[in-house]
Structures are given as structure tokens and as C-alpha cells.
Amino acid sequence: MRFAIHALQRLDAVDLQFEADSADEARCRAEAQGYAVLSVKPVRDWLSLRGGAAARFPLLQFNQSLLILLKAGLSVVEAIEALAERDSRGDSREVLLRLHQQLQTGLALSAALEQQPAVFPALYVASVRANERSGALIEAVERFIVYRSQSEVLRKRVISAAIYPSLTLAVGGLVVCFLLLYVIPRFSQVFQDLGDRIPLMSRLLLQWGEFVHAHGLAVLGGVAGFVAATAYALAQPGVRGALARRIQRLPRIGEHLRTYQLARFYRALGMLQRAGIPIVASLDLVAGLLPASLQPGLAAARRDIVEGRAISDAFQRHDLTTVVSLRLLRVGERSGQMGQMLERTADFHEEDIAQAIDWFIRLFEPLLMLAIGLVIGVVVLLMYAPIFELAGSLQ
Length: 395
What we know:
The chain is 75% helix and 6% strand.
């Protein structure tokens, strides 16, 4: 969620916007960068009131189409107008029409993009601004396409790897619910006269079946309420933030999550460095990519860099490096190719994380299948235990 912050910096009033899970997190991020926060408000612009058009605007596809038209010789105004006329989706079309109107008034592309901060991220606007001054707008668009495409690779890999376990878990859960809410209540009616002659666990399971049979609507309402409450809780930024903090404390998973967050940070910082934006300004633009736990370290590293300390030393001092990234940053400082080395650092860590995800999925899938099979098997065995007991007593 985006928050608008009114703050003071060296007695000058400034207005900022931060992506954060809560107002407190946005305040902490601003204070970590040296701002005296006066107020924090969630951004409620015309896009968000229409149901989140910013999240649905295809920024990568927009840049890919824009690049083709610019290379074909169209001006920026003509290219934006053509894209607006082609787009049939209401929300995206409104974004492009508004952008075209602002360009027609004489605004530069970066200034027009800046008027819609919920759609166009600040680091994208900064990259465009830095390159349009030198007439290298095509290079800026190409660079952002590469940045966004590579940033999406790992996310798509995680999603594709999680599809099969999610389906397995969903199907297994539905089977267990079917047994507990439909099959067992009917079994319980058949064996309710056996009394203490059946095993304890089977008796408890059959008692559950009798309860469901007598209060079926109440049980279904309770299950639906629990699912709705869980979904509502997970939709709250504070709950998601607390859950993320707990995950970060897990030994191996937390380490990989921190590496992933640093990789995103390095990639965005590398793109801005290659665009020629000064390092301090670049750090301010990409600060929102780091979680709240790393924000104080970033603010301290920024102060060290302003005071003249090397980037690699400042990052190492405030726990913003890994063993590999520290070496690559030092190579970038010696060669003068810091932007390229930052992007290579992100490539290395993202590939390392992708391998860890593949290993985890290969281990997790059979364990998940085993656990679901075990739960279903135990339920079925407890269901049929009274039958075995009855057959034994007849013999």
C-alpha cells in the first residue's frame, strides 16, 4: 500500500510517498532516511478508488510497445496516443489518455509519468528523467524492460513451482473435509449402538460424526466463518507484516528471504546507476524495496556514503551485503562499472535462490503427499475399525 508523508528535512517541508504494509512502517522508513515526519496518510487517488487500476496496468507490456514505436520513429506523444487508441481496457486506457493529455500541454515524459505515482514507480520515473535529458530515452526504456523482466523471472518461477503442491494440498483438504463432514456422520449412525466395544479413537471420531449430524448447519457455518476470518486477516497489512517477520526468523528460510530482498535492491540500484543517477539519490529511490528490518542499516549506509565512505564498505558495515556481493561490489568500484556489477550480483543471488526453491519443492512434494495420505489413511482406518471389531466379536 502507498502512503503519502508530509515531513521536514533541514527545516524544509517535503512531500514523499512510500510503499509499506502499514502507516507505522512508512513512518519508520521516512525517519530512517532523516526526515522529521509530520503526517502519514494512505494514498486514495482516482485509480485506487476504481478498484486498484494501478495494480492492473501492464507496465512491462506498455514499455515493450512503447520501445517498438519509438524505434520505428514515432515521437513520444504519437506513441502514447497510438497506445491509448489501441487499448480497449478502461483502466489502462484512462492512464494512457491522461498521460497523453499531459504530454500535449508541454510536460516532459518524466514529469507526466510523475503525475501518476500509483502507476509509474519512482525509480522508473527517475531513470526516464536521467536519460531524456541526454536524448537517450530509448535506452532508458530498454533498461527498464530488462530490469522488470529479470525481476519477474524468480517470482514466476516460485509461482509455477507452488502450483502442484497447492493443488495437492487443496484436493487433500477437500477429501478430509468430505470424510469428516459427510461420510463419518453417516457411519456414526450405523455404529452408535456398539458403545464401548469399539476402540477409543474410533469412538471419538464417531462422536464427532454424531455431533455433525445433529448440528450440521452450525458446523458448516463455523467452517465458513473460519475461512472468511482467515482470508480477512491475511488481507490486513499488519497481519501480513507480522507473518513476514516470523518467517524471516526461520533459520534457512529467513536467510534466503533476506538474500532475495537484497537481490531486488541490487538490481534496482544497478539500473539507476547505469542510468547515471548519483548513488545517494539512487538509494533514496530504491529504499522502499527493502523491508523495515533493513531500513535502519540502509539509512546508516547512506550517511556513510555521503561522508565519503566507499559503497562496499558502507554496505558491509551495516549488513547489506553477502560474501559474494561484497566481492563484486569491490570489483565494481575498482573498474568503475558499479551498475553492471550490481546487476550481476542480483543475477547470482537470484539463481542461487531459484536452485534452493527447486530443491525445496522436490523435497516438499513427496513429504506433502505422504502427510496427506497418512491423514486420510488414519481417518479411513478409524472409520472401519468398528467393522473389524464387530466381525471379530461375531467370530
